[in-house]
Design a protein that fits this description.
With 274 residues, this protein is α+β, with helices and mostly antiparallel strands. The chain has helices at residues 5-36, 51-63, 66-71, 77-82, 84-87, 102-123, 136-142, 154-160, 172-178, 182-188, 243-252, 266-271; strands spanning 179-180, 197-207, 210-218, 225-233, 236-240. It has two domains: 5-94 and 265-271, no CATH class; 102-252, no CATH class. The protein starts with a helix and ends with a helix.
């Protein structure tokens, strides 16, 4: 079962809105500490220590995307909150990333889909070689974003979160390597133990203890082939029939429970940099 472009856009908007709101809640906790932390005692740092510059360095440690902040003239952490709605999508604070230039996006999308599709036809089983292709709903998703990295600020996300779709940040050789043979997929996925037949597929994204695959497969009781999305984890796997199902799951997968963040003090703020 595939989703319509309208269904995918609606699910993507909900995903982005939820994660952007959670990222804002996190920054509402951390930015005041960064802004109000007192300058270190004399002698604690070098004489030319620039405390205001270091506040921005700490912010960049938290969210990444430092060139966006620099290019937009953000010189103080509080300015990010003032311009949050505008900057959040460009800073990946909505769980996605987008390449700025439209012509660059188009070129990289063509490279990605061409490399993946060519490798799929080479590595799939003979039975599906004439029909396996990039799912249309995935192409619909790529019209709006160039990758999905899930919830959380970059500082924690890079350590604990997985990217559902690495997207358009690699080269053609790496794209081709992400395509797997059915035998390689069965090493990661247990769905064949339940009677599924795998025709081919590719690795969309990964991270600590999690890999998301797009799998061209057939149900035990069904003669028809179709794409599913399977998240492989150390203690099991999740199977999704559609892109919207993936987005609903990913919006909450390993999200940071802000109510459990311990009290964040000035020493913690400076430790992010040193």
């Amino acid at each position: 079962m595939y989703s319509s472009p309208a269904d995918i856009l609606a699910a993507l908007n909900e995903y982005r809105s939820y994660i952007a709101a959670e990222s804002r809640r996190a920054l509402d906790i951390f930015v005041p500490f960064i802004t109000n932390a007192q300058e270190p005692e004399e002698g604690d740092f070098e004489d030319d220590f620039d405390v205001e510059k270091q506040r921005m360095e700490v912010l960049k440690q938290l969210i990444g995307y430092d060139t966006v902040l620099d290019n937009d003239g953000i010189t103080a952490p509080a300015e990010l909150l003032e311009r949050y709605d505008d900057l959040a999508p460009r800073l990946g604070l909505d769980g996605t990333f987008i390449i700025d230039a439209d012509d660059e996006r188009s070129r990289k999308q063509d490279e990605y889909f061409s490399a993946i599709e060519e490798a799929l036809k080479l590595k799939c089983i003979e039975e599906v070689r004439g029909m396996i292709a990039i799912p249309e709903e995935f192409r619909s998703l790529a019209e709006h974003v160039d990758g999905l990295h899930g919830p959380g600020l970059e500082y924690w996300r890079s350590k604990f979160q997985y990217a559902a779709w690495w997207g358009l940040i690699e080269d053609c050789e790496m794209y081709s390597r992400r395509v797997k043979t059915p035998d390689e997929l069965t090493q990661w996925l247990s769905m064949t133990d339940m009677g599924w037949t795998i025709g081919g597929g590719w690795e969309l994204g990964e991270g600590p203890d999690a890999i998301l695959f797009a799998v061209y497969c057939r149900r035990p009781e069904d003669d028809g082939w179709g794409w599913r999305y399977v998240l492989s984890r150390e203690y099991g796997e999740e199977l999704f029939e559609t892109i919207p199902e993936v987005l609903v799951w990913n919006a909450h997968f390993r999200e940071h429970d802000l109510s459990k963040i311990p009290e964040f003090g000035e020493d913690d703020m400076w430790c992010l940099m040193f």
